[in-house]
Amino acid sequence: MRVRPFEDIVTEYGPMVLRVCRAVLGPADAEDAWSETFLSAMRAYPGLDPHANVEAWLVTIAHRRAIDVGRTLTRAPAPVERLPDAGRSDSYDPDLWAALGTLPDKQRRTLAYRYLAGLPYAEIAGLLGGTTEAARRAAADGLKTLRTTYLEEAL
């Protein structure tokens, strides 16, 4: 089987990885995690099994890089209250991010991996620890909260 050029992988999966990083870390730190994800992936790509699920592989790397970025942030000086708008070209919704930010970490990550990356609950459970049923419950609880907070505000 012929290996796809890495540039094609970035083009195809880059937007999905960025959405996942934003949902997990927030808009200000997502680009760092995205860059770190693809730097790590580029180094490991030559040894990747040609039959591997590239999307799940990238989400796993993004998950680990998001943890690394999160750890770095906890050791960094306190950020300014508000960053200037960087002129986003995608469908970034600050109200949705604010609603996601109120969710517990596991619910927010589960929703990101399920609905932005399209991972099955079994893979999410492997990433976050726990059972498939716990991942389903976290997603259901997170959606229920979003329906009562974010969707009511949007009406």
TrEMBL record:
PANTHER family linked to this entry: RNA POLYMERASE ECF-TYPE SIGMA FACTO, RNA POLYMERASE SIGMA FACTOR HI_1459-RELATED
Keyword DNA-binding: yes
Domain named RNA polymerase sigma-70 region: residues: 10-71
Entry annotated with the keyword Transcription: yes
Full protein name: RNA polymerase subunit sigma-24
Family: Belongs to the sigma-70 factor family. ECF subfamily.
GO MF entries: DNA binding; sigma factor activity
GO biological process, one term: DNA-templated transcription initiation
A Pfam short name: Sigma70_r4_2
Domain of life: Bacteria
Keywords carried by this UniProt record: DNA-binding, Sigma factor, Transcription, Transcription regulation
InterPro entries according to UniProt: RNA_pol_sigma-70-like, RNA_pol_sigma-70_dom, RNA_pol_sigma70_r2, RNA_pol_sigma70_r4_t2, RNA_pol_sigma_r2, RNA_pol_sigma_r3/r4-like, WH-like_DNA-bd_sf
Domain RNA polymerase sigma factor 70 region 4 type stretches: 96-146
